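Quick note —
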Amino acid sequence: MDGTTLDDNFNFDEVSERLDGYTGSDIANVCRDAAMMCMRRKIRGQTPLQIKQIKKSDIDLPVTTEDFIDAITRCKKSVSSIDVNRYQAWIEEFGSY
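Predicted structure written out below.
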């Protein structure tokens, strides 16, 4: 997402391993969800008035590896490994379109 920064200690290897089997669309959903984690933490338990008073600088923080891990647990894969195996078998038998 534009304007979203990653924490200096972001662990690309760990996140990429956990995203194995996710589609591009699934990964986009994970990224959006991870970017919202900081805001969710800040507004949890707050009243609407308190939420309105939160400064953008208080929620515009770098996205961490933990934010991504939390997002991955919330956003499941849309294609199962069984489906992937079926598609691969189809391509091997009939070729790709």
